[in-house]
Amino acid sequence: MSLLPNTATLLGKELRTEFRSRELLTTTGVFILIVLVLFSFAINPGTEEARQFAPGLLWLAILFAASLMFQSCFLREQANDTLSSLRLAVSDPFAIFLAKLGANTLFLLLTELLMLPFFAIFYNISLGAKLPVLVLVLFTGSLGIAIAGTAISAISAQARMRELLLPLLLLPLLTPVLVVSSLVTASLLDRDSIVLWKGIGFLAVFDLIFLTALWLFGEYLLEE
Amino acid sequence: MRKVSFEIAPGECVVLAGRNGSGKTTLLRIAAQIVKPTAGKLSFPGAVAQPSENGRPGYVAHTTMVYDELTAEENLVLFGKLQNVEQPAKRAEELLREVGLYERRDSLVRTFSRGMRQRIAIARALIHRPSVLLFDEPATGLDPLGISWLANSLREVNRSGCTVVMSLHGESEISALATRALRLDAGAVVADTKTGASLRAILTFGGA
């Protein structure tokens, strides 16, 4: 079984190349920050309206930032045909997906955690005791986005109209995750602060189903 | 590809010749198991010489197939680890010395010249000590000195028992290593020879 050692090696490579260039983290971080700042001017912070809209805006910013991340996820492997050398080297192609997925989730979560203080300030939301559950929601939601995004990225990287194809395939696929993530976040940040465990459970099941599908059919997505 | 059926004996140095679009690259990519054939069979009997090897051929393409954002050493260690090479760091050092890049082991590949990129590409393909080396137009972009170095390296690799299959355009110092030549045309093998004069004719006629 070389799946886990290969995944760890590839994840190390993903992290090393990203922390060397800081390309994805800078792009996604700046993007989320701009969206949050712009909307904080449009909506008066501290009002009930801001409290209602803020979770949706947060997930919208995360979605678009993630789309930027997925655009280059497999595309960067094409410059030197490194995807071919990876497929030649690994015995289980799922390791390539797992490493990409791990890196995407990690980068997405890192960006979100860095943006949370700004989110709390701009929309006058006290995170305090809600933070552990909010991090859980962010994790399950981001994992769902990353699983679907990584798979679609592998498909679109080999297509001719890749810039159009990625959002076209990704957005409908992610609608359930985004709706549930926004609902759970909204109820959590509400004055009464209710934890919708059913929603979190839905996100976990979504992640599990998509991860299983990726494990079963991922190999075909990497074929030329 | 169509009507492609041949066997290559261990230790042979085979040149695939043919015009652009004749199917040389496709054939090599199928042999490297990067592209799955829609029909037919590909097998490597006896290719696994040592239990530590995964039996896959080494493949050098037009591109380097290594990461520009990693150093030469990091790239080799990465591919060594992925292919379960014992002591990948030691093997990487050995190969870096062999291809003359040891002094530049800590440099990012994106800072390398064309010739140096070709060297790191060869080192990557050899990291798991393959029994078969597939090489797609090895001389592309190399100066005469680089071609000489490459010819010597391939000779050494072939002498060590590794079967070499490469696509070439025309005669060169590298084509002199060939013990056999196959000429492809429109995806089919139209000539297969091992004798000197015919071999030369295939190589010269096979150019674009």
Brief description of this entry?
The complex is a heterodimer of chains A (224) and B (208). Chain A is mostly helical and 224 residues long.
Number of folding domains of chain B?
2
Give the overall silhouette of chain A.
globular
Q: What is Rg of chain A?
A: 18 Å
Distance between the termini of chain B: 18 Å
- Summing up helix and strand content along with how strands pair, one would put the structural category of chain B as alpha/beta
Instruction: Count helical runs of chain A.
Output: 8
> In which range does the helix fraction of chain B lie?
25-40%
Approximate helicity band of chain A? over 70%
Q: What topology, given as strand order, has the largest sheet of chain B?
A: 2-3-4-1-5-6
Report the CATH topology name of the largest domain in chain B.
Rossmann fold
Please tell me the overall pLDDT of chain B: 86
Q: Can you tell me the CATH architecture of the largest domain in chain B?
A: 3-Layer(aba) Sandwich
Strand content of chain A: under 5%
For the sheet with most strands of chain A, the description reads: none
How far is the first residue's CA from the last residue's CA of chain A? 25 Å
Largest sheet of chain B: 6 strands, mixed
Low-pLDDT residue intervals, each spanning 5 or more residues of chain A: none
How would you name the CATH homologous superfamily of the largest domain in chain B? P-loop containing nucleotide triphosphate hydrolases
* Structural domain tally of chain A: 1
The greatest interface between two protein chains, and residues involved on each side, is: A-B, 24 and 28 residues
Multimeric state of these chains? heterodimer
